[in-house]
Design brief:
five-stranded parallel β-sheet, NAD(P)-bd_dom_sf, precorrin-2 dehydrogenase, disordered C terminus, ferrochelatase activity, Sirohaem_synthase_central, two-stranded antiparallel ribbon, EC 1.3.1.76
Length: 263
């Protein structure tokens, strides 16, 4: 009976896609590690606030400051930096005692923190990431082997199929259009089943090459059927099979008939 369900593997982390758009993230430190943390925040559309004296800035952090991509406080860390509007804290300093002080402050204020290279003082970890447009894949060893995470990440990246980014982008556009023609919660299961059938039937290359005008033609098959890509692009417009073309023909015919009737 128990074999019907997946086995529990304790000791892992809860892998989440944390949305921090428009939220302030305090980065303590200005070195190379801090630059990587800043990039993560900027790629997620967050607002990095960097606390570091000028003497502690690496070239990339100095560049981000010069380009006004981050807010910079040119001084050492102060407990007053952790204000109520700070969504998370990223400690990237070489001073373990200072990092522990920051960790304890965050715990008292219930602000999540990541302290670089100190796993016990982390509420969350950064993993080795793959970014291909809308696709994000993270590999985590739960703080046990960061270099191994990088090696595994590179292996996964090299094995990714071509056109994966384009396929995800076009599928996202198609889902938006589908939700417009079937917007109600009651139609949710039909939308899901139809999209699953499409993704299983089409290749990534076919999904990525789908043009917007072809999406309208494809959506006319919802929810009853899913044509193959070849059937979609090779079939001529047909009033019975394609609602977009059919609507155009009917409207044009109606206008001609109305004009003839008027005369």
């Amino acid at each position: 009976m128990s074999s019907e369900f997946p086995a529990i593997q304790p000791g892992g982390s809860l892998i989440l896609a944390w949305r921090i758009q428009g939220k302030k993230v305090l980065v303590v430190g200005g070195g190379v590690v801090a630059s990587g943390r800043i990039n993560h925040v900027l790629n997620a559309d967050g607002i990095p606030i960097v606390v570091s004296p000028e003497s502690g800035l690496c070239k990339e952090v100095a560049y981000r400051i010069n380009e006004k991509q981050v807010e910079w406080r040119n001084r050492e860390f102060s407990p007053d930096d952790i204000t109520e509007d700070i969504a998370m804290v990223l400690s990237a300093v070489d001073d373990p005692s200072l990092s522990t002080q920051i960790y304890k402050l965050c715990q008292s204020k219930r602000v999540p923190i990541n302290a670089a290279d100190i796993p016990p003082e982390c509420d969350f970890y950064f993993g080795a990431e793959i970014r291909e447009g809308p696709l994000q894949i993270m590999v985590s060893t739960n703080g046990k082997g960061p270099k191994l995470a990088t090696i595994i990440r590179d292996h996964i990246r090299n094995s990714l199929p071509n056109h994966v980014s384009g396929a995800i982008t076009q599928t996202g556009l198609l889902r938006q259009k589908l939700r417009e023609i079937a917007p109600t919660p009651e139609q949710g299961k039909k939308r899901m089943r139809w999209m699953i059938r499409l993704c299983e039937k089409w290749t990534l290359n076919e999904l990525g090459s789908l043009k917007e005008e072809q999406m309208d033609k494809l959506l006319c098959h919802f929810p009853s059927s899913v044509p193959t890509y070849k059937e979609l692009v090779s079939s001529p417009p047909n009033i019975l099979e394609n609602c977009v073309w059919g609507t155009t023909i009917l409207l044009t015919g109606g206008l001609i008939l109305a004009k003839y009737w008027k005369h």
